[in-house]
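Give me the 3D structure for HdeD family acid-resistance protein.
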Amino acid sequence: MSDTAGRKLFQHSGTALIFRGALALLLAFLVASLPVATVFALVYVFGVFAMTDGLTNMAHYFYDPARHSRWSLIGGFISVATGIVAVSWPGITAAALGVLIGAWALVLGISQIILAMDTRTTVRAWWIWMLTALVTTLFGLFVLVNPGAGFLSVVALLATYAAVSGVLLIASGIKLRRRASSSVMLAH
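Predicted structure for HdeD family acid-resistance protein (188 residues):
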């Protein structure tokens, strides 16, 4: 891979992570600001978030065929499929919503753990991706173990998870963009 291609990869990868992080923070804000919203509204908010996050992940996979990971693509498909199920099934109950969100986070977290392990030799900040993956996996396990913990608990957990995940994704994106920028400075 040429130096120019490497700089572009990290710059665009960083932008994708920052975008995903901003989406997660937007989800956190929406969920936290509407704590008494119905499960029906939360299903749509979550469904749109999951589909957008998944499509962004899949677009990144196809955008850079020289440096893609099938785990990135798998994570994208998991998110899109979960979002479609959520939006297609709006009459879902609070407990079923907890199971759906928990299963999504668990499977997505496991795919992100594998992706972080794959990138640890090429990306210095791989541990931030691993931390994001672990937070996602633990969130999924907690919600799966307690799916009927109550609607407001699910709302608080989802808002907290989205905020933490969003901050970690933005931090990863900034680190990648800085790496691309420092490569440009070193090349000149």
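The two ends are 18 Å apart (CA to CA). Let me know if you want a second pass.
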